[in-house]
Write a structure and sequence with these properties.
315 residues, alpha+beta, 434 Repressor (Amino-terminal Domain), Immunoglobulin-like, 2 domains, 6-stranded mixed beta sheet, 4-stranded antiparallel beta sheet, 35% strand, disordered N terminus
């Protein structure tokens, strides 16, 4: 009996320490252990509070493999505070503090002014090549692979395009790349990989915007389809935390895969979208990381004008 009392006292002391200093997953695990509840019972209590959370999610939360972020998940955390007899806001506070620390570590995103300057630069570079954003081509499919290196940098990307001409005489595509913060723009390179060759290249050092002609070697007639593939090496960039793709027109399928080096795996990934560079992000959805293949992906069946991307947290 004394042994059981000592064990309970130790569990309570461990819980008190975790609630004061966190992190969230340690406090949650300590609270569940202190109350002696199996996860199935926790799930049952949550359902009685009108909140549906799977046992797998609860397990991930207390292991630190995932963190509750969606509104329904945050409702579950508040219910857990009551179920586990914890002070109000104790778990929510730990989540908020973790978000604040994550935001402090994350470098500031490009400002709206910087995005506008990059957009103005892009217009100028495209005009210099005599290219419009439409270019006489509709995108049927765009599959993109991004590599993140051992230093957590964006090492490069590869794009596979399937396009259809909607006017006669189209013989090229102009690829656009916006370098990562910390990249040396002059070190960026473009490689024509399949069914194309590189033509003129234009680079703006200040904004890191690169545009490159990809020449087909044949003139398409209206209705013709064409497949081509190219790659971009981003140079010595800093730590990467997301990849974003912008679309000026509606199009076909877009698939994005991000593959990480074995020495640098993120702790979580999510998909997001924006109507424009100035708009708030929306459509956030957690994405599972395929650990054996070290990759995460999204598929958009039909793209709309705006931006879509994948972001990831390193810790």
């Amino acid at each position: 009996m004394r042994h059981a009392t000592q064990h309970a006292d130790f569990a309570t002391a461990e819980l008190d320490t975790a609630l004061r200093g966190g992190p969230f997953h340690v406090a949650l695990r300590a609270a569940i252990a202190a109350r002696g509840l199996p996860l199935q019972r926790v799930q049952h209590h949550l359902s009685r509070h009108g909140v549906k959370v799977g046992v797998t999610s609860l397990s991930y939360w207390q292991q630190g493999a995932r963190r509750p972020q969606r509104p329904e998940s945050l409702r579950a955390v508040r219910a857990l505070e009551e179920i586990l007899q914890l002070p109000d806001e104790s778990l929510i506070r730990l989540l908020a503090e973790a978000d604040e620390r994550s935001a402090a570590r994350r470098p500031a995103a490009r400002s709206y002014r910087a995005l506008v300057e990059a957009s103005d630069t892009l217009d100028r570079l495209l005009a210099d090549l005599g290219w419009t954003l439409d270019g006489g081509l509709h995108t049927i499919g765009h599959h993109e692979r991004v590599r993140v290196g051992a230093r957590r940098e964006l090492a490069g990307r590869e794009s596979h395009h399937i396009v259809r001409a909607h006017r006669d005489g189209v013989d090229r595509f102009v690829a656009v790349h916006h370098s990562e913060p910390g990249c040396a723009p002059e070190s960026m390179t473009v490689r024509a990989l399949e069914n194309c060759r590189t033509g003129r290249v234009r680079l703006d050092q200040l904004t890191g915007v690169l545009v490159t002609e990809l020449l087909f070697g044949t003139r398409l007639r209206s209705g013709d389809t064409y497949l081509f593939r190219y790659g971009v090496e981003d140079g010595a960039a800093g730590i990467s935390r997301e990849y974003v793709r912008g679309f000026g027109f509606p199009g076909g399928q877009y698939a994005l895969q991000v593959r990480f080096d074995a020495q640098a795996l993120p702790v979580r990934c999510h998909r997001f979208a924006q109507h424009s560079a100035a708009a708030p992000r929306s459509g956030r959805r957690e994405l599972p990381l395929s650990v054996p293949h070290r990759s995460v992906h999204l598929v958009e069946p039909r793209v709309r004008p705006g931006l879509v991307g994948i972001a990831w947290d390193w810790e």
